[in-house]
Amino acid sequence: MNDTLEFSEIYQEVKGTWNDGRLRFSKQTVVYKNSKTGKVDSIPVSELTQAQWRRVCLGHGIKLWTSTGNIYKYDGFKDTDLEKISEYFKANYKVELVEKDMCVKGWNWGTAKFNGPLLSFEVNESPAFEIPLNSVSQCATGKNEVTVEFHQNDDTEVSLMEVRFYVPPTTGEEGADPVEAFAQNILSKADVIQATGDAVCIFRELQCLTPRGRYDIRIYPTFLHLHGKTFDYKIPYTTVLRLFLLPHKDQRQMFFVISLDPPIKQGQTRYHFLILLFSKEEDISLTLNMNEDEVERRFEGKLHKNMSGSLYEMVSRVMKALVNRKITVPGNFQGHSGAQCITCSYKASSGLLYPLERGFIYVHKPPVHLRFEEIACVNFARGTTTTRSFDFEIETKQGNQYTFSSIEREEYGKLFDFVNAKKLSIKNRGFKEGMKGNDNMYSDSDDDQHDAYLERMKEEGKIREEGNDSDDSEGESDESFNPGEEDDEIAEEYDSKASASESSADDGDSDGDRKKKPAKKAKFVKERKPRKKEKKAKDSSAPKRPMSAYMLWLNSSRDRIKSENPGISITEISKKAGEMWKQLGKEKKEEWDAKAVEAKKEYDRAMREYKESGGGSSGSSKKEKKKKGGKNEEKRKRKSAGGREKEKERATGNDSFKSREFISSEESSSESDKGKGRKRKGSDDEEEVVSTPPSSEESGSD
Length: 702
What we know:
Strand content: 25-35%
Pfam families: HMG_box, PH1_SSRP1-like, POB3_N, Rttp106-like_middle, SSrecog, SSRP1_C
Largest sheet: 8 strands, mixed
CATH architecture of one domain: Roll
Keywords: Chromosome, DNA damage, DNA repair, DNA replication, DNA-binding, Nucleus, Transcription, Transcription regulation
Oligomer: single chain
InterPro entries: HMG_box_dom, HMG_box_dom_sf, PH-like_dom_sf, RTT106/SPT16-like_middle_dom, RTT106/SSRP1_HistChap/FACT, SSRP1-like_PH1, SSRP1/POB3, SSRP1/POB3_N
Structural class: alpha+beta
Family: Belongs to the SSRP1 family.
Number of helices: 17
Radius of gyration: 44 Å
GO molecular function, one term: nucleosome binding
């Protein structure tokens, strides 16, 4: 038989929520480690007294009793594990694993029994449900009723607020109230904080960053009392997970961080960390409110009745002795500036990231603590605003991602060496030397990340370019219409004619009118509107463009995604497919890439055969002929119309038609009839220029 038995995905109920973890049975201890918080329960084998196997909602569970009065429950075992665990317990623990069935009748009357830290409600000597008394926050009594209230857990979707027990009157001892006796049994084991007695010591006006403000900290034997101007908090030492003492980057201040589970609450805000900020230069003399013998007996030399030193040292020393937890400090990491932390930004705030021996901690807004064992991989990414900085991304096994941005480039080498030494998975592992010596160091940082959408767009762009090269009929259709050249041609032609008319005018007032003429000419040219491009007709007989590797994989996997996720929408299918493609192995992707290359070759071969057979050329030649014929016909119409207008004006000899320039010059001029005649003659020349189309020279050459 093996020396140890290990089980993964074993669940422990904590205040209404299931936390998974790993359970290990060894010859000396039973150890359970919570995957979420990292908290470890260690039970010495010598203290085990009973063991029970039960059918529960999560399969099967084990209930363990110890000689110290504690009870531990672990669920999530399989039915086949019973025989293996039972034999191990008999051989190593000398304890028999007893099978016990739960009552599932649904009756609401029975017998309440207090078994250590549990209140068990039994029906016909079978437990219906059990209440951990350390989850009780308050107990109130009525005439024949006891109301039990519970601590709330933010991680649960549905929380049990209270349970009421009806206690019938009994004819027992006179003066003994059964309701009060029931309530006292609950309160003796409940986690109800009552500030009775004197505080061991008090620290006045300490600066607290979260929750923000200045608080008096009163140290009691079983809990910590934060007293501020607006809020009061009572924190049991049992809720303290870890203690951190972190030096500030300026080497003049210290952070003292207390990790809490469950967190303290202020309205809808939850504070999982209590962060105190101290100055290294601030000293204090402390006297404990206990006699020397009591201090020596209780703290075993860890504390003394009279102590003095730096304020942060006194606070951390007292907390370590009362909470009985180790204080975590930064390890051997040193940044580019010699500090044990890195300046960076998380979300919208700037703070400090501390690489520890077993994790990372960021202070202070919001505080984040990440253990190495819950980190899936890390990533070094290019900075979003400047190349003088980079981003450090951490992805957890639960799928959460934390991005610490705006880290100075000089810190890269130190941080890379630290992550590499801790054997963390680096998503985009590259050359560290290139990062140090090359300013363009982030050019290949994202090469390992596959963007399916980008690949598809690139593939379609290549195919579109090839299609444009093979069929340029659309480009030829717009070759004769060039607005820029046309405007220049009209301006030169008009200016040369206008100079002749200007030389025949002697009045100085007409100069101002001539200066306004170019604006009117531009307005006249703008009246010509370009013809709309005709939409290119698709040839149904042309071969279809090939699909990319991602699209080929998606078409083959779409039915499987639908079957695994019934009722999924089209957009959710695309999102799910993108995630699956990103997680696909390199060998699988190469297989689909090869299929895409084959499809591209097949498309090229089909396109060559299509062009050789004359496909796509007949339609474009007809379109060209039609467009050229339409242009020539339009030019002939415009030329004949201009000739008829000039002949009509010469024949009539009246002022029925006048150009815009003639009208403006006639209104502003005060010359004689002779001068008017000269102007009319000049305007006829101008009119002829306007009526002549811009491309008349081209039509003459044709």
